[in-house]
């Protein structure tokens, strides 16, 4: 039961994080400083941190899926 709730929470969080990324025309990350570009053309600190957080949440989401699958298999 706990892993099912964790899956719902991580799914909603992952959805929000993906929507915050900047697309072609900008995104919600502009509200948090993601729209400021450095002179070298690299991504800003806010955008890189958003990328890192998204990757961590995606890995946790994947781990919960695997655990749920194993629990269902061995029940």
Note the main attributes of this structure:
elongated; single chain; mainly alpha; 75 residues
Biggest β-sheet strands, sense, barrel:
none
Shape: elongated
What percent of the residues sit in helical stretches (DSSP H or I)?
Answer: 55-70%
Q: Which structural class fits the helix and strand makeup? A: mainly alpha
Q: Provide the residue-averaged pLDDT.
A: 83
Rounded to an integer in angstroms, the radius of gyration calculated over CA atoms is 16 Å
Task: Give the strand content.
Answer: under 5%
First-last Cα distance: 13 Å
Put simply, the count of helices is 2
The tally of strands reads: 0
The H-and-E topology, N to C, reads as HH
Task: List low-pLDDT spans.
Answer: none
Pfam families: SecG (PF03840)
Membrane topology: Multi-pass membrane protein
Protein name: Protein-export membrane protein SecG
Family: Belongs to the SecG family.
Detail the topology: elements first, then pairings.
Layout: H1 2-20, H2 45-73
Helix pairs in contact: 1-2
Protein name: Protein-export membrane protein SecG
Transmembrane segments: 53-72
Family: Belongs to the SecG family.
What features would you describe in this structure?
Helices cover 64% and strands 0% of the residues. It is mainly α and 75 residues long. Helix 1 packs antiparallel against helix 2. Keywords: Cell membrane, Membrane, Protein transport, Translocation, Transmembrane, Transmembrane helix, Transport.
